[in-house]
Structures are given as C-alpha cells and as structure tokens.
Amino acid sequence: MIRKNFWHALVATALLPACFSVAQSGPTAVQPLQLSAFGGLSGVLTGLAPSVVSASTPQGKNLSITAGVDLGLLSHHGIRPTIEVRGTLPVDKGVVDAEKSVLFGGRFDFWMGHRLHPYADFLFGRGQTEYPGGYIFGNYQYNLTTTNVLSPGGGVDFDLTDQLAIKADIQYQRWGSAPTASGVVWSKPITAAVVYHFNFNRRHKR
Question: Fewer CB atoms inside 10 Å of the end CB: C or N, the chain?
C-alpha cells in the first residue's frame, strides 16, 4: 500500500504545473514556477540496534532508492519556497530492519540563479518498517510497524546544465512505534541523486 500511494502521489504532483504558464525575462532569470524530479540512491542508518547484540551483527542499515518531485514557487531575494513529495524504498533491507516511506512538505532553496544552491526542508508523512525474521523486544516479537515520520533536513543541488543537476541530501527522521524503550528511533538517510528540471518555456533558459 505504501508503494502504491507513493507512485500515486508522484503522478498527481507531476500533473499540477501543467495548468500554469511559465515565463522569464532573460536567459539567466528563474522561472516563476519550476517543476523538477529527482531519483537516486540512499544509504540509511535506521538507528535500531539488533535485538540480539553480537559483534557480527551491525546496527540497522538499508540501501534504498529515493525519488521525488519538487514544485518551486515564485522566488524572492534569491530564496525560493518549494513543495516536495518524495518516497524511499529499500532494495537491500539489511538484517535488522527496513524502512520505506512517503513524505510531503516544504523546503527553501537559496542562491537561486547560481549553479550551486543549498536548501533546508521539513517533510512529514507515513513510514513502514519491516523486521526480517522478526524483532524481539520485551515479551513481543515485531514483524511490521507503521508510523508517522517527521523529517527535517537539507542538502545542496549543483546545476550541470539548464535541465540537469546533481543532489546531495541528508535527513534526520523521527520514527515512532519502534521496538525501543522510548518507542522512537532516529533514522539518517543520506542521498545522492540526479535532478531533472522541466522547462515549459523552451524559448528561454531556466
């Protein structure tokens, strides 16, 4: 269900800007609205220790695919507010836990008009954690948990061309319903991705 909702959210968001007309005043101007999509790989430190601690069992780690879409709004003084939807799906679940999520929220891009521009974001949504082989905590065995996810973070985009960029991104995520004494784990996804900027006004550069 999480995977299906993720793809539905991406498609719905991608169709929104088709109703808008984007224009700009010159070759170095920034479009009033900017739609972009990104996809890449994430190394995720899930923050959960193995239920049976041993020297041969590391803490939870995932190799995941992260993809999303961004709708950038009108920029002001070099700062652009952006609406983002992203999803993360593990391809290597590790031996402790595997996290997948669909998140939505806002971010602020800085230094618009430059090739290198950092950003800060805050995302929230739903996440699901699988525990391969089960996870023993107290008198219970956990196989699957679903929870709200809060995800502050940030990163930097570097424009290679008018339409292509590369991204480095890190999030610091709070996952509830966890098999820990506090009921919370803090996950740290680190993502490297390729970004594609859609240009709806091909007479001008982005």
Answer: N
